[in-house]
Amino acid sequence: MGVFPECRNAKSPKTRHQMKKILIITGSPETESNSSTMAQAFAKGINSKKFMTEIISVNNFLLEIYSYKTKTPDPKTEQKFLEICEKIKTYDGLVIATPTYNFGVPARLKNFIDRLGFIGLDYQKINKIGQPTGQFGHLKTFFLVSGGSPWWAQKIMFFMFPNLWLKMAFWYYGAKNQGSIYGAKLTFRNPAKNNQKLLDKCKKAGKHCYRN
Hints:
The protein has 212 residues and is an alpha/beta fold. The protein has helices at residues 5-8, 13-18, 34-46, 79-90, 107-115, 117-120, 151-156, 162-172, 196-209; strands at 2-3, 20-26, 51-57, 93-99, 121-126, 132-134, 140-146, 176-183.
C-alpha cells in the first residue's frame, strides 16, 4: 500500500476538503507485475497536491470466498476489507489494475469485486429489470489491463478480455466509467517497465482522468 507524501501534508481544512481521493487496487499475485507497473505510472500522472492517491493489493489482506454466508464481511477477521469498503464509499475514484488470466482476472480480484456487492448494491430497491440498484454513482472508475495478446486481438475480441467485464461489473454497481487501457504483448521477457510508450499513455490517462 502506498500514499504519496505530498497528499498527506495538506496545510489547511480547505485544502483537505478540495482534495480528491483516488484508490488504486492491484490484482496481480506477483509483487512486480506488468499491471502494477501500469498502475504506478497512472498514479504518477494523478499525483498533485489536489489528489490523494493510495495503492492497495488484494493479496495483502484476508478475504473469505464469496457466498451467501460471507455476503456481509466479518468485522473480526475482515477488518482491512471493511476499511477499504469505507474508502470506496467516500472516495472520488477507483482504479483497477489487473493481468489477464484465461481471458479474465485473477481469482482474488474477482472475489474482491464480488464481495463489494454488500456496499455496491441496494437489495431493497429493485430496478425495472429485476436487479438491485447500484450504489456507486459517486465513483469514477478506470481500468488498467495487461495481457500477452496483441492489441488487435483485444480490439476484435474485446468481449473476451477483462476490460469489458470490469466495465460491466462496476456499471452494475452504478459507477461511472472513465475508460481503460490494455497493455498488449506484455510478458516476463517483455515487461511493461521497458515499454515507455505504454507507461507514458498510463501516466497521461492518470493526469486527465480525474481532473473534472
